[in-house]
Amino acid sequence: MFRTGSLLITGANRGIGLETVRQLVAMESGPKIIFACSRNPESAKELELIQRNSGTCQVHILQLDISDNDSINTARDKVESIVKDSGLNTLINNAGVCRNRSFEDLIAAEMMSEYNTMVVGTAMVTKAFLPLLRKAAERSTIKKMAWNKAAILNISSLLGSIALNTGLYISYGACKAALNHLNRSISLHVKNSGIMATVLHPGWVKTDMGGPSAPLEVEESVKDLLKVFLKLDSESTGKFIDFKGEEIPW
């Protein structure tokens, strides 16, 4: 489904974001154009290596700080200059931060920083790129696609489930719960535009954020996430789904 399309992913310089770019480039049916975004692209050496060996897939490494509106708008203008009237087919909001403090040790400034990144930043990125997603949805000619081949994927976490809350990662979980709510609002806002908006949980993954004790290798998580994405349909929009395709309670 990807080959004729374009995809943008935030937080592409490490962890799940980096591995997603790596696997998409290697996919026979991967996107024609990938915009791999990083807050500090000059230090994204592994991403540069993928770019140099991307074959027929065009990989554009873009500077994008999702907490900075000027950075968001600059990236949007760059993407628009490349995709032109074709629009942007897929937006993956992956960038995030995670701190683990007990309730007694919570720091207001840290909590605000996390919220600003994962919730406000995601909202502003989606808002900026929505016109390009609408263009892609309007131009789609693939009839079998339930959402006209335009999608917003928000990478969340099981820790954002209120029903399954274990009391761990208090600030991070609260931010992910807010992100889940945001996604639901976005899905309702775009429901008549042929755009899908879905929350995905990648599992507990061995990354800088997930730590060495996580049971999932990043390669396995991303492989399963991409399989899930390929199976999503109009019934998936607005839902909270894990890397195995199972729906998670809010």
TrEMBL record:
One Pfam annotation reads: adh_short
Q: Which GO terms describe its molecular function?
A: oxidoreductase activity
Q: Which InterPro entries match?
A: Fungal_SecMetab_SDRs, NAD(P)-bd_dom_sf, Sc_DH/Rdtase_CS, SDR_fam
Alphabetical keyword list? NADP, Oxidoreductase
Family stated for the protein in its record: Belongs to the short-chain dehydrogenases/reductases (SDR) family.
Q: What is this protein called?
A: C-factor
Task: State the species of origin.
Answer: Sinanodonta woodiana (Chinese pond mussel)
Q: What is the lineage of its organism?
A: Eukaryota, Metazoa, Spiralia, Lophotrochozoa, Mollusca
